[in-house]
Amino acid sequence: MLDNKEFFLDKNSSRKNILILGATGYIGGALCRKCSQTEDLAVFALVRPSSDVEAIKPLCKEIIRSQEADFSSNDVAQAIRKHGITTVINVAWHMPPESTKEAQFAKDRISLEAALHGAKAVSPDIHVITTSGNFSLITADGGRITETPPPKGYTPPEYLAFIDLLISVNVLKDGLVEEYISNGGNASIVYPASVYGSAPTRGSFWDFAIQQFITGKPHQGYQPFPPDFMTAWVHVDDLADCYVAAARKGTKGGRYLAAPENLSISQISTLFAEAAGVEFVAPVFENKDKVIFDDSHTKEVLQLQWKYKVADEVKGWVERIKELGTYFLE
Question: Domain limits at 130?
Answer without folding.
Answer: 5-198+234-260+294-309
